[in-house]
Specification:
Elements (H helix, E strand, L loop, with lengths): L1 H18 L4 E5 L25 H6 L1 H20 L4 H11 L3 E6 L5 H5 L4 E3 L2 E8 L5 E3 H11 L3 H6 L31 E5 L8 H12 L3 E5 L6 H12 L4 E4 L12 E3 L3 H17 L1
Parallel strand pairs: 1-2, 1-7, 2-3, 7-8, 8-9
Antiparallel strand pairs: 4-5, 4-6
Helix pairs in contact: 4-10
Length: 285
């Protein structure tokens, strides 16, 4: 046990050494939000998940009905979630001038709730809905009111069952066949969460802004991402190509491990809090 503590202590020392005096861009994934009660996709203890693809959503009304029924429950749980110590540590590091920007693959808005200011929500957020026909954007709360009017009592009946909610606000609800969907009030078009689905591309301007954050930083910190999908891995590759230190804090292996300067198989909340505490001590000293 003492050897394990010493090993973790030396890793933290190495982490602090790598990031001291450097401007750090942070890339986060679902593993950062598990301590806020939001399960991740690919963590060591996560059950198999099959998120809906863009093609399924736009191509099959039954898939859309299932998604909106489950989302009608799930978005409420996500909206009620609160930042954990990992989110708060990153916001503190930004206030200290260490973190210069944050790219998140999460749609839960917990970085913004924690106080981080320069955040790129790479895959969008649960809180907005867009019309695929006319491009209109509405709040998820406004849509919730319309869906509740069309499905009175549906969410209330499910919320008492303690359902699990996935990182994309998809709740595990089985009885969805009676759920009634609604269309865009402006043009009657198909409504979709303002979230980048699997099989869908991240908007180019958003990707460009994320690359700019990496270019203007001296190091990259990855927290809670397995880097399985290219939308996040490309930024790690970009930083490594520029010979910038890359630190990965994640439970389990990642696709970016061979590119990293330091890989820490540890939980995000404790590690990021310890990092912020250590760097703040150095600043005060």
């Amino acid at each position: 046990m003492s050897e394990m503590r010493e090993s973790r202590g030396s890793e933290l020392d190495r982490l602090v050494e790598l990031l001291t005096g450097r401007r750090v861009v942070v890339l986060t994934g679902a593993g950062l939000s598990t301590d806020s009660g939001i399960p991740d996709y690919r963590g060591p203890s996560s059950p198999p998940r099959n998120p809906m693809t863009y093609q399924q959503f736009v191509g099959d009304a039954a898939f859309r009905q299932r998604y909106w029924a489950r989302n009608h429950v799930g978005w409420r749980r996500m909206d009620a979630s609160r930042p954990n110590p990992g989110h708060r540590a990153l916001a503190r590091l930004e206030r200290m001038g260490v973190v210069t920007g944050l790219i998140t693959q999460n749609v839960d808005l917990l970085h913004t709730k924690a106080g981080s200011r320069r955040v790129i929500d790479l895959h969008g957020t649960y809180a907005r809905v867009c019309c695929l026909a006319c491009g209109a954007l509405i709040s998820r709360m406004a849509l919730a009111e319309r869906l509740e009017a069309a499905n009175p009592g549906f969410a209330d009946g499910v919320l008492t069952d303690g359902v699990e909610v996935a990182p994309d606000a998809d709740a595990v609800v089985t009885d969805t066949e009676s759920f009634r969907m609604v269309d865009c009030e402006r043009c009657g078009g198909m409504l979709k969460p303002d979230i980048v689905y699997f099989g869908e591309s991240v908007p180019k301007e958003r990707v460009g802004a994320a690359y700019d954050l990496v270019d203007n930083a001296d190091a990259m910190l990855v927290a809670g991402s397995s880097l399985t999908v290219m939308s996040g891995l490309r930024f790690v590759r970009h930083a490594a190509k520029q010979a910038k230190p890359v630190v990965i804090v994640n439970r389990g292996n990642t696709r970016g491990d061979e590119l990293s300067t330091l890989t820490m198989d540890l939980g995000c909340s404790a590690t990021l809090t310890a990092l912020a505490d250590s760097l703040q001590t150095l600043v005060v000293a």
